[in-house]
Amino acid sequence: MAESAAVEYRIDRRSGIATYLQIVQQTKQALRLGLLKPGDRLPTAREVVEATAINPNTVLKAYRELEREGLVEGRRGLGTFVTRGLGGAAAADDAPLRAELADWTRRARAAGLEKDDVSALFTAVLDSTFEGDRA
Fold first, then answer.
1. Is 122 left (phi over 0), alpha (psi -120 to 50) or beta?
2. Which of 15, 23, 13, 29 is closest to 43 using CA atoms?
3. How many beta carbons lie within 10 A of that of residue 20, not counting itself?
4. For residues 73 and 14, what is the distance between their CA atoms, to the nearest angstrom?
5. Beta-bridge mates of residue 79
6. More confident site: 6 or 124
7. Most CB atoms within 10 A, among 15, 32, 59, 130?
8. Cβ(101)–Cβ(108) under 8 Å?
9. From CA 94, how far away is CA 98, in angstroms rounded?
10. Distance CA 82, CA 37 (A)
11. How far apart are CA 29 and CA 20, in angstroms?
12. What is the Cα–Cα distance from 107 to 11, expressed in whole angstroms?
């Protein structure tokens, strides 16, 4: 049987994003980064509840949404398992890009930008780049 994957959910109660959606988004992020792979078991609802102090139904709702999207499947008595990954490049392939982004992030921080400022700037550039692809 597969071990529980190394994903730890972090719930930001001030974000304005529904808790179950935070779990869905964090799971998808882990899939994109290769932290979760097909066959990995997600933490049980009980494990998530113990780590985050959220309602078990919230965890189950998130897992149902992931299942509806075809990313995971529940196996009675065994847990919830990843059925497919997301994203393009493998983790080894994105190492140079990750290093460049880390360097850019350090420069932004040294220039006095806060985390939210960096996120907003990155999102704006990302959006304009991908909108340009659609033109």
1. alpha
2. 23
3. 20
4. 30
5. 75
6. 124
7. 59
8. no
9. 6
10. 6
11. 14
12. 28
Give the number of other Cβ atoms within 10 Å of residue 113's Cβ: 15
What's the rounded mean pLDDT across residues 78-92? 79
Nearest to 9 by CA among 71, 51, 63, 53: 51
Distance CA 4, CA 96 (A): 29
- Residue with structure tokens 């400022």? 117
Coarse DSSP helix, strand, coil percentages of the chain, rounded to the nearest 5 percent: 55, 5, 40
91-133 confidence digits (pLDDT tens):
556 778 878 888 999 999 999 999 888 888 888 888 888 886 6
Yes or no: say if 83 and 68 are a contact pair by the CB < 8 Å rule. Answer: no
Of the candidates 56, 71, 57, which has an alpha carbon nearest to the alpha carbon of residue 25? 71
